[in-house]
Amino acid sequence: MSKENRMHARQILDGTVSLFQHDSKEYVGLMVDFSATGIMLSSYTPLEIGTVIEFDMVDIPPNIDSRRTGQVKAEVMWTDRITPSMYGNGCKVIELSDRAKLMLASYHPEHSA
Which of 29, 34, 51, 62 has its CA 20 to 30 A from that of 93? Predict the structure, then answer.
């Protein structure tokens, strides 16, 4: 087993964060984890490597009655089948809206408790 060489630690999500194409509002998948520079998402079809996608990140935080939405622009770096019907997709973050930065910051473990 090789140790992953990551500059930034990954944060595993304990809630559900859905990702939609920004322009079409078409559902893409669920965010699995993230770091300061990337996100991994699961989807039913593989995303095309090298594609730059603008996502709307949508969550419903615990104890809050409304959903939050933030925008993420990212480049697909890799894709891998994780089950017969599910793919993992690694994306390098290019740009985050201020709302997306707040949302990601709120997923850090020190914010829950």
Answer: 62
